[in-house]
Specification:
By secondary structure, this protein is α+β, with helices and mostly antiparallel strands. Helix content is 18%, strand content 34%. Helix 2 packs across helix 3 (110-123).
Length: 467
């Protein structure tokens, strides 16, 4: 799956569902018209077969999810009842643990029982957060690579899509207020400036753009994207409602990469930008002038992600070479540390508020690291599917999007707290590519996910009342 994601990104640039070789003019091909017509017919039949298989697979997966959740609930209730019969009798140095069950067995090896009991408790601990789908945002014409929340005080999110556009959405209205169309390739990431109304996007056209992201809040509300969906399925931006403002010209175009720019982020203060590219380099730019200040080399394969620390001049880059690198720009001469923490491509690496780094990989694991001592991971989270762009909340909740449409929530100690619904009615229908927390938004939506089903989902993730 890890290699297919890269192929998918190349294929979806400008995709309209028709193979390129079937869109050639008659003068560009030697295939007789009768054979071309037959090819069209055969490919249409193949597409229909794949649609049927895909629909059947979704229905089967939904049934499996329902059964899995039922088994989890039953296992938790059953083992919780068993645990009610455990009594601890501590008598001193050579303490024994008395286990009262139906067979009245006594276990003298107290350390073994403590290990077994710990495993039971951790395995059947109930989810501590409730996840509820609140709003759906639709309008992109192709898969969505990235979602990001605006700075505190602004109820906005931004999205980057393979349809060559980036959009700024109102969280409250569920409407696209601004559409940026300045890129000529897939838009792979989006980040808002920490204090100004500007945005940063990276693209398959080998550039990153800085553009004006001020929105017109006086636009008529019209229908929300959720209402449009209920009224007639997915619609393009502006159809059935008010068209968003369209912006085509960037404030600054950041040039210099020789390959796809997959990610870009603002350094603290917002005066500099870091970009990551398939040309195996990361570039540091001056936003005001657009000049490339430094080219960061060292990765052996294509970069997959770049992220900056919220308060210090630290940057982390991830790569398909199975490593991620920590770059320190706090001194005039920057330093770099290389970390071999995964066995396959590292798909993302981000900082937490507690000066930790969370890395995700195609090896189906997520690891938590301490920036001050990164010799070994503090926690390792393993899953059954490749990990995409992870997100960490201000209070330390890790959201992990997967290729298999799952989104799981963990804490920084690696304890699973919740799993988002994955049914066809509530969850994503294709792989989930990115997630974003919105801790400061006043509405009840505090989490967003996006994927290649062309949808952005807004969720309310709150602590359970039982906690």
């Amino acid at each position: 799956m890890k290699s297919s994601k890269r192929r998918l990104q190349a294929l979806t640039e400008g995709s309209d569902g028709i193979p390129n070789y079937l869109k050639m003019e008659d003068s560009e091909t030697s295939i007789p018209p009768v054979f071309r017509s037959r090819l069209h017919e055969l490919f249409s039949q193949i597409e229909k077969e794949f649609d049927l298989l895909y629909t059947e697979n979704l229905n089967l997966q939904e049934k499996v999810d329902i059964l899995s959740e039922k088994l989890e609930r039953e296992s938790y209730v059953g083992d919780k009842q068993n645990l009610d019969y455990i009594e601890f009798d501590v008598t001193g140095k050579n303490s024994k643990v008395k286990l009262t069950q139906s067979n009245s067995q006594k276990v003298k090896a107290s350390h073994k029982l403590r290990v077994q009991t710990s495993k039971i408790v951790s395995s059947f601990k109930a989810p501590t957060y409730n996840c509820q789908l609140v709003r759906e945002f639709t309008g992109h014409k192709d898969g969505i690579w990235d979602v990001s929340s605006a700075r505190p005080g602004q109820a906005l999110i931004g999205t980057a899509s393979a349809d060559h556009t980036a959009c700024v959405w109102s969280v409250e209205w569920g409407k696209c207020l601004l559409q940026y169309t300045g890129h000529s390739g897939s838009v792979n990431s989006i980040r808002f400036h920490p204090s100004r109304d500007i945005a940063l996007t990276s693209s398959g056209d080998n550039t990153a753009h800085v553009w004006q992201a001020a929105v017109n809040w006086d636009l008529p509300r019209g229908q929300s994207s959720e209402e449009e969906l209920e009224g007639g399925g997915e619609e393009s931006l502006g159809e059935g409602g008010d068209r968003p403002e369209v912006l085509r010209t960037p404030l600054t175009e950041l040039l210099g990469h020789q390959g796809v720019v997959v990610a870009a982020d603002w350094l603290t203060g917002g005066d500099h930008v870091i970009t990551a590219s398939w040309d195996r380099t990361a570039n540091l730019y001056d936003v005001e002038t657009g000049d490339c200040l430094q080219v960061l080399t060292g990765h052996d394969h294509e970069l997959t992600h770049a992220s900056a620390h919220h308060a210090s001049r630290l940057v982390v880059t991830a790569s398909r070479d199975t490593t991620f690198r920590l770059w320190d720009f706090r001194e005039p001469i920057h330093s770099v540390s290389v970390f071999q923490g995964h066995t396959e491509s590292v798909t993302s690496a981000v900082f937490t508020r507690e000066d930790k780094v969370v890395s995700g990989s195609d090896d189906r694991s997520v690891k938590v690291w301490d920036v001050r001592n990164m010799r070994s991971a503090l926690a390792t989270i393993r899953s059954d599917s490749s990990v995409n762009r992870v997100g960490v909340s201000g209070n330390g909740l890790i959201a992990i999007p997967h290729d298999n449409r799952q989104v799981r929530i963990f804490d920084l100690q690696g304890q699973r707290l919740a799993r988002l619904p994955r049914s066809s009615r509530q969850g994503h229908r294709r792989m989930v590519t990115s997630v974003a927390w919105a801790d400061d938004i006043s509405s009840n939506i505090n989490f967003f996910s996006c994927g290649f089903d062309r949808r952005i989902l807004g969720w309310s993730i709150q602590p359970s009342k039982e906690n």
